[in-house]
Amino acid sequence: MTSIFKHMFVATALVASIGTAVAAPAQAPNDFIKTVADGLINHLKAEHGKLQNNSAAIDAILKQNLEPYVDVQAFTRIVMGTYASPQNSTPQQRANFEKSLRQSLIQNYGSALAKYSNQSYAIRPYRPSASAYQIVTLDFINQGQKTPIAFQLSDNNSQWKIRNINVAGIDLGLQFRNQFASSVQRSGGDLDKAIASFQPDAGAAVKK
């Protein structure tokens, strides 16, 4: 997998993880993911010439094509881990973390999204789960090489929500949780300092 492509698909999945959801669960989970993926890819291709060094344009595409379909609270809780507990953080700290996480992902991976060109994807056959979450897996294809990305969906008040991502067998929410816990330790337990300085590293997570 090329470095550009690896960071592109990670960015596609991750920056999505800061938003709210609007899709109705009457739509099958695999159809829901196809709708999200097609919308994002079509806009990236259509605006390709305008995206280089244009964070505002990338941000606009993400807000329109990704943010409406994801569960911000769930992903924030996953990444914060025990620090998301009301006993370990304040509402303001959790809000600051959510904002910081989103901004960091856009800054670090926006350039990768801007380089998206003719990569493709295929959705694997969907198999309903008896658990609280449904899993839909895509194979992103670049020069014949496939990389699986599994989206974990939850049905909340008649709305599908993406709550976590698994890339090539790596649980990104869990990897980011470990990274954040290390950041808190390096900050001497100062949660505010850790939140302000936290830089999620998807590339390092995928390499594990």
TrEMBL record:
Assigned keywords, A-Z: Signal
Q: Which Gene3D superfamilies match?
A: Tgt2/MlaC
Q: What residue stretch is flagged as signal peptide?
A: 1-23
Q: Which organism is it from?
A: Acinetobacter boissieri
The record, for Pfam families, names: MlaC
InterPro entries, per database record: MlaC/ttg2D (IPR008869), Tgt2/MlaC_sf (IPR042245)
Q: PANTHER family from the xrefs?
A: INTERMEMBRANE PHOSPHOLIPID TRANSPORT SYSTEM BINDING PROTEIN MLAC
Please state what the protein is called: Phospholipid transport system substrate-binding protein
